[in-house]
Amino acid sequence: MLQRKIHIRSWGIGLSDGQAKLLRRVLGEGRELILYPDVPSSACGEEKAPAPYVVWISAACCRDLSRLPESLSSCGEPAEIVMLLDAGYSLEDFDRACDYGIKEVLRLPRDTGRVPEIMLRAVESRAARQASARLTRELLFERDALLRKNASLGFLADFLAAVGRSLNADELLKSAFDNLGKLLPLRSMHAALAVPDTGGEKILSLRIGLEENSPDFALCGDLLLDQARAVLGGDCRRGDIRALSLCGRETPDRVPESTAPLCLPLVSDDKCFGCLMLLTDPELVLNRDQASALDFAIRHLALSLKNAEQFSAMRMHAEYDSLTGIHNRRHFEELLNDEMQRLSRHGRPLSLLMADVDHFKRVNDTWGHRTGDAVLREIAFLLADGIRTTDFCARYGGEEFVILLPYTSTSEAAALAERIRRRIAAHVFTAEGGEPLHLTVSFGVSGIGPEEDPSKERLLHDADTALYSAKEQGRNRTIRARTVFRTTARKAG
Predict the structure, then answer these.
(1) Same domain, 284 and 136
(2) Rounded CA gap, 485 and 476, in Å?
(3) What digits encode the pLDDT tens for the residues 297-320?
């Protein structure tokens, strides 16, 4: 049986010969670049000519984006749009990109190294969307089939509606408990879920449907672990264990002795990834309709839990930096746009800290990149640990970080930067081999007051200018943007 060839196709709009040539060389063999408007009509809607994964558009030809939605809508798969800046680019190009929702802007050939990363992300994103859509189609098909087969299982409608409201695993389990109680004399419910991406080792996250101070909390945890080992097979190790607050029903402090565990496997794509343990009456006997409804409900719950896991992984990939674990630049820019709109409505101050690790290149050159990566992770933790829950910390690029501070004046922001700077300077990092390592960080501070026009470009530019001034003045210091401008003005005068 012949396998269908997967095409990795991208479109180019308004690209110069040099840009097209450079992209084709970087994309490599097997990744096709079609220059618009030479895109064939068969590129949309036909299996032999799939939709593009990425659309590369020059800044000079960005107006052609007005024609893209109609062309791309019939493809059934959204493409990632990337703007390629020309040599004479301006801030208006960035504004236009934001207006069209473009989140990636490259300057060639300087940013050539990001092209494979963008292609890989586009391919992974489409695969995740297709997998999620396939799961959804399966859920809808099974739901409709069973509801037509047996109208007496009216509880299924409530169950499916409740479980379909969330993509959070704990909320899904709470909804399942509330609705399964309408079908069974349910005393309590507990769940064991395999922790993903742990290699061959099976680690289970246990959710116990009792209060943590309940006398039988530990007992139910041990019973659940034994049941999960029997279902999953092999040597399963306990990971985290926590109480699952079951809303809408009162759970007993003690589990009655006259209670029988009903252990149901959670299966998706023919793989068991956990189990649900229901504590019910030992004399419970389900009729055919109840057994069929329970089986369908658990399979639906399993698919929803797997979907929630994939959604969580997709969100983590889209919003968080894989090295440091804090937010990435793309998510920062999205939030900055939201804060600018909020600033326009409410007129509250907004401040920005831009931080850069001093002499970071020496760390990589002296102790290697493993130590450098460890240092970046520790600095990210120290930055994020020193701010409020309403603040936002992100890795801006390389060894540079940003902290967005809503409802914060520049003087308050500068004081916060100083506290974090001193904390990092006093912190002892560990180099490869256990050698102690001391590092410092420079901060640039900018802000927008209630009476000023909200401009994210000026906010970023001012913070970057202040950071550059901190570097020039000897590093390991905090500089406010206003101070930089007043000093420059005095020198000019």
Answers:
(1) yes
(2) 20
(3) 889 898 888 888 777 777 667 678
